[in-house]
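Attaching the record inline, Q. Sequence:
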Amino acid sequence: MGYYVDEELKTKLIAGVLIAAEEVMAIYQRDFTVQAKANESPLTEADLAAHSSIKKTLKTLTPEIPFLSEESVKLPYSVRSEWDRYWLVDPLDGTKEFIKKNGEFTLNIALVVKGVPVFGIVHAPALDESRGVTWVGQVGEGAWKRRASSSFEPISVRQLPDSEAEPWKIVGSRSHGTQEFEKFCDFLPNHKLVSMGSSLKICLIAEGSADLYPRLAPTCEWDTAAAQAVLVGAGGSVLNANTLEPLMCNQQDSMLNPYFIACGKLDARWADLLTRSIHDNKLK
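Structure, as predicted:
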């Protein structure tokens, strides 16, 4: 396999994600225990079950491609820097939303090539009356969305509207709001805020349901890579908030992302505000 995910492999990957989602939903629908990781973030048996299931799928379909998951043993950069491509997986993004049972959690796999997420699958098994919603994107090819067992339909970002005629739709984290986010939103013209969990926020922009997601709080590369591929496939961007350059993976020992902006298209109306606010030290 090259760097392009063909239709046959894409179909098998989606099927593998759906198998993992069945295990997650079986746990979601009953009582389960919650542990705390070393960083105090929550961990459930669903995180581990999805990790094992997705790892099995990827190792079976593409044994030649390295695999890295949020729940993997963390590898040093000296090892990861040798990879020209690898699978980056967040088996359950939005564990806090999973625990709250509000449905806003996702299973995520991304193919990263030379630091760029080029293909991604984001599956939300508890949405659409628990029948599930899936987003798929491939850079240079497009992005698609499917509800339950219906067919995949192409999606694309929308043009940022005139805020005087129609408010911008800004999405923010349901569980990780920050003062920096609130400060930046204060700088924006007429807008409407929507709170959402997990990588769903980026997918909303990809399908044209939202315009901007300023993430001015810590995230890791596995939190964003799959949805970034979907958004870029749909015509949008995920940009480093300090440089307005595309967000990259596997560039350093830490797998923490810088602050970033997910957007339909780069637009001076918010980019100038962001640049000024950062340079004036109003944002970190």
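The two ends are 41 Å apart (CA to CA). The mean pLDDT is 92.

More tomorrow.
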